[in-house]
Amino acid sequence: MSRNLLVLAILLLLVGTLGLGIIGALASRQISRGFSPEERGRWIYSTATDPDSGAPIPYSGGMMMPMACADCHGIDGRGLRTPMFVSPDIRYRNLTDPQGMIEPNGSRGRTYHSDEEIRRAITEGIGPDGEPLSWPMPRWQLTDQQFRDLLAYLKALP
User: Of 31, 50, 97, 141, which is most buried by a Cβ count within 10 Å?
Assistant: First the structure.
């Protein structure tokens, strides 16, 4: 009798989890309708999930556990200091500053001259000078739409 109850409990747990996943995906589709590109970009930046499907955005390299951009760069994009690394300010205006982006230590660094260079940094982990970015940076497999939305959010950060 207890074995049957255990099987039933596991079955109910699986059905419930599947149901929540479906409801979550449908809710995210409902939520993302009418979102501006900036709002969709904020969703991607904050959750590392697609605003239409709710599915995680695939990545390779970088941190071992999946994290969203905001987990390393802060919700405001200004970077964070963690015990393992210091992340840079990735607001668009800092990345594209003609004098060089302000690095976490206050020095001036590289300048991203185009949106395509920013895309390469996000998707390939390569900086504007052709050098690899620091080890924590994942290589996100963004669709064209996801990149445009994320870029709209980075451009909107004050």
Answer: 50
